[in-house]
Design a protein that fits this description.
Shape: globular
Number of strands: 13
Keywords: Nucleotidyltransferase, Transferase
Structural class: alpha/beta
Order of helices and strands: EHEHEHHEEHEEEEEEHHEEH
GO molecular function, one term: nucleotidyltransferase activity
Largest sheet: 11 strands, mixed
Domain MobA-like NTP transferase: 8-133
InterPro entries: GlmU-like (IPR050065), MobA-like_NTP_Trfase (IPR025877), Nucleotide-diphossugar_trans (IPR029044)
Pfam family, one: NTP_transf_3
Helix content: 25-40%
CATH topology: Spore Coat Polysaccharide Biosynthesis Protein SpsA, Chain A
Radius of gyration: 18 Å
Length: 279
């Protein structure tokens, strides 16, 4: 019997800049949170369950919210159960490993709980997991950089360098990205192309990659165990796996529209955009 893919939501963030539980902020035309819209898109694309990665302090609220609305079953994983512990989560690679025991027998996608990836983005992820997945392989669903900027300040984005066959060569973090008065997109690293492939933390994995991520985490953490800020991030782990030829990563472009919430000022523009999207 074929096991369908899991859809993993990174929902353990502490919302420092937002100032609250933005995972559940009502933004949809009927008061839906972004996770409600995303889970509905995932179910429509063929994902069979949701695995929400949370912290114990918010688990009951997240569980109740999703179980009341989700068309597919929910399981929880607790990021703060995976040692070592600190107040700030250890990053997306650590988060994924906290759910590893729930994912070892099936392919899975992974996404931020406070980003809306649109039907096309989720469908592109499901298509890769169904038709292109292979051992020791992952995919990164990339958005057009110009469509991921903010009118309310600068953003940070991982910009993908892509090979001739669509494979990831590396993902370079660019800080303080914004469209300037000259109409061009600038960052601390210089001018970026509007059409550049931007990573928004939407990934697909064959479960064999979990052991590779775990090996990178175990090599990274000894030098960071007393660090209160650094994070072990999935794009950086994927860079290392590609560079050491332990895994391949396909870059899958989508024409979908991305929306996200970072600050409270993002709420109203997101509500307006989603109202038009679902009109």
């Amino acid at each position: 019997m074929t096991v369908g893919p899991s859809f993993v939501l990174l929902a353990a963030g502490i919302g420092r800049r937002y100032g609250g539980l933005k995972q559940l902020a009502p933004v949809g035309p009927n008061g839906e949170a972004i996770i409600d819209l995303t889970i509905a898109d995932a179910a429509a694309a063929g994902f069979e369950e949701v695995v929400a990665i949370v912290r114990h302090s918010i688990a009951d609220e997240i569980r109740t919210h999703i179980e009341q609305r989700s068309p597919i079953p929910l399981r929880l994983a607790f990021q703060d159960d995976l040692l070592p512990r600190r107040d700030k989560p250890w990053g997306t690679a650590h988060a994924l490993l906290s759910a590893a025991s729930l994912l070892e027998d099936r392919p899975f996608g992974i996404a931020n709980a406070d980003d809306y990836y649109d039907v096309d983005g989720i469908a592109a992820l499901a298509d890769w997991l169904t038709n292109r997945r292979r051992p020791n392989a992952a995919c990164l669903v990339a958005y057009r950089l110009g469509d991921t900027l903010s009118d309310r300040g600068t953003v940070s984005r991982g910009i993908c360098e892509v090979g001739a066959s669509g494979e990831l060569l590396r993902c370079v973090e660019n800080l303080k990205i914004a469209r300037e008065a000259d109409g061009l997109v600038h960052s601390e690293n210089g001018v970026l192309a509007d059409d550049a492939s931007a990573s928004m933390n939407l990934f697909g994995f064959d479960p064999s990659v979990l052991d590779l991520v775990r090996a990178d985490w175990e090599a990274w953490i000894p030098g960071k165990v007393h660090d209160e800020e650094d994070e072990c991030r999935l794009p950086e782990v994927l860079n290392d796996l590609v560079a050491t030829v332990r895994a391949s990563v396909d870059v899958v472009r989508t024409t979908g529209s991305w929306m996200g919430i970072t600050y409270t000022d993002d709420l109203e523009p997101t509500r307006e955009a989603l109202a038009h999207r679902f009109a």
